[in-house]
Amino acid sequence: MTVNRIEYKNYRNIETLTLEPSDGVNVIYGENAQGKTNLMEGIWLFSGLKSFRGAKDAELVRFGCGFGRLKMDFSAGGRDQKAEITVDARRKAKLNGVELPSCAGLMGKCSAVVFSPTFLNIVKNGPEERRRFLDAAICQVKPAYAPLLASYHRLVKQRNSLLRDVQFESSLLDMLDVIDERLADAGEALIRERSSYIERLIPAAKAIHDGFSGGKEEMTLAYLRKNGNSGKPLRELIKENRRNDILGRTTSVGPHRDDIDIKINGISARSFGSQGQQRSCAVALKLGEAAVMKQITGEQPAVLLDDVMSELDSGRQDYILNHIKGWQVFITCCEPSTVLRMCGGKTFHIHSGELTKAEEN
User: Fold this and answer.
1) Same-fold call for 2-111+300-360 versus 124-264
2) Angle (deg, nearest 10), helices 173-213 and 275-297
């Protein structure tokens, strides 16, 4: 997807604003709380997903206004298209003049990948953050993955409920056998999808990270199965751990316990990486996600990098600004000096929800 034009009306702190970006790198700069992230969020909403800031729909509407509206002209699927989102009590969407049942209908039509500062948690925090990233990335390129994931989590919940009761009522063991079979089938399907995706992500993210570091640092990724790297099928692992699961009253193995191992030069990025190294890993994963999306769908997503420049040295900043070719990229930053290093694209200055300057470089 390439964004050709986007109009904002009564959106967050923006009364009216029109953005006509370059098809290359676009830098939106200005002081904090002026509307930089609001512009990025507006583009992201056309992916069909919720705000990456966790905002409720009502919070998207400018204070004192009854509704907010976004209109986007974009190119995707080999043709020019139009999309519109209206926000009042909830979000409603149109695509090429046709009203959609929900904004989810935009998924796969307007593709985007977003990095925000909270995404650093994928490196800094525990396995849940990395599983969430992996599952969300797969959902964008394989819609059938979402119901499979939901079904698996329902089965884990049902099994955990049985585990709490079975020690007091042995007749529930037969039901546990049935749930275990279903859980194993759904879990193995998830593991296959995740492993296949990781195989694509590894070279894509590594190539980006190599560019960041000039080949001086090596980033490696590996999908780690909880108690499962021995190669045993999940069905066998569930059976082996049943007694302990009954005692612990929880399901101890399966994809809901798995992780992604992220290392720099063979050392854990989470435990020993600097702030800059952790940020480099996180950005490489996001740009790798964009590359994989292009491989699978044939459509290059718009890349939204919110506050990505802080804690990156000048060489890594230069790579993002000038060496990502053939992608439409949106970058927000506070420092106008960042703009001076750009060798192309467009720059936009925003103040109090208004664009005060737009320049081609």
Assistant:
1) no
2) 110
Distance CA(188)–CA(166), nearest Å, equals 25
Options 3.40.50.2300, 3.40.50.740, 3.90.550.10, 3.40.50.300; CATH of 2-111+300-360:
3.40.50.300
Report the alpha-carbon distance of residue 220 to residue 241 in Å, rounded: 30
Give the model confidence (pLDDT) of 37-74 as tens digits.
999 999 999 998 889 998 999 999 999 999 999 999 99
CATH class given for the domain over 124-264: mainly alpha
Distance, in Å, from the CA atom of 88 to the CA atom of 131, rounded to the nearest integer, reads: 33
Domain assignments of the chain as residue spans, ordered by start: 2-111+300-360, 124-264
pTM of the model: 0.92
How would DSSP label each residue in 10-77? EETTEEEEEE---SSEEEEE-STTSSHHHHHHHHHHTTTSPPTT---GGGGBPTT-S-EEEEEEEEET
Going by the DSSP 8-state scheme, the letter that residue 170 receives in this structure is G
What is d(CA 78, CA 181) in angstroms, rounded to the nearest whole number? Answer: 45
